[in-house]
Amino acid sequence: MTHPIVENIRKIICDRKLSQKTMAEYAGTSASQFSKILSGEVQLSLWQISNIATNLGLREIDLFTYPDVYVRRKNGDNFSDEVRASLTIELSQSKKEQVLKLVFGENNLEILNK
């Protein structure tokens, strides 16, 4: 079974009429390795998720909530009933700060560490 983010990436490929080769380039990997990601044989790294989002002009969270929040934001819809995503990641202490910066940005890291 593939991860929900992989299913969302499949939707993005289809919606934007992108090739797997292009998405592999966005992820910073080979076409064969990206094929393994799509089949669930290999997991996406946080670095790859960030690269894909950046290359698509999205935020990382948009890859987890696609198409719901992304499409509504693009159309200027009100977010009073915003879709929320919950993600649990097990990390070593040394990676915690990097991930917090990736998800919440540099400015919010100080608040999160209190």
Describe the structure in your own words:
- The chain has 114 residues and is mainly alpha-helical.
- The chain has two domains: 1-76, 434 Repressor (Amino-terminal Domain), CATH 1.10.260.40; 85-114, no CATH class.
- The protein has helices at residues 4-15, 20-27, 31-39, 46-56, 60-65, 68-74, 93-104, 109-112.
- The relative contact order is 0.11.
Distance between the termini: 38 Å
Count of all domains: 2
User: What percent of residues are in strands?
Assistant: under 5%
Question: What's the total helix number?
Answer: 8
Portion in helices = 55-70%
Structural class of the secondary elements?
A: mainly alpha
Q: Which architecture name of the largest domain does CATH use?
A: Orthogonal Bundle
Keywords:
single chain, 2 domains, globular, mainly alpha, 8 helices, 114 residues, 434 Repressor (Amino-terminal Domain)
Sequence-ordered SSE layout with sheet pairings:
Layout: H1 4-15, H2 20-27, H3 31-39, H4 46-56, H5 60-65, H6 68-74, H7 93-104, H8 109-112
Please give a quick description of this structure.
The chain is an all-alpha fold and 114 residues long. The protein has helices at 4-15, 20-27, 31-39, 46-56, 60-65, 68-74, 93-104, 109-112.
